[in-house]
Amino acid sequence: xxxxxxxxxxxxxxxxxxxxxxxxxxxxxxxxxxxxxxxxxxxxxxxxxxxxxxxxxxxxxxxxxxxxxxxxxxxxxxxxxxxxxxxxxxxxxxxxxxxxxxxxxxxxxxxxxxxxxxxxxxx
Length: 123
Description:
This protein has 123 residues and is mainly α. The longest helix is centred in the C-terminal third of the chain and has 29 residues, at 94-122. 71% of the residues lie in helices and 5% in strands. Strands 1-2 form a two-stranded antiparallel sheet. It starts with a helix and ends with a helix.
């Protein structure tokens, strides 16, 4: 139960990571959706990976450890791509840092809790 709540909070934090643009800030989920359909853009690959990572949390076997790890890596890939492409100083604001920290800490902890629960069931 705690793992599910933690995973849900982590995914919501991920969706509301704010990316600052030149004129306005947008949530990561909006960036993912628009970039996924921006053909010819290198970021399109990472946006699609991020969307697939989110969707992977909605499938029947989402509580297994390997799909959860794969989902985490897929969702992390667009963020890492943006951090590599844009100077790191442009990410020095709390609306980016706090949700990202919640996601990066919370999601792996939920995977660990899920793994422990599965191990206890088999023992």
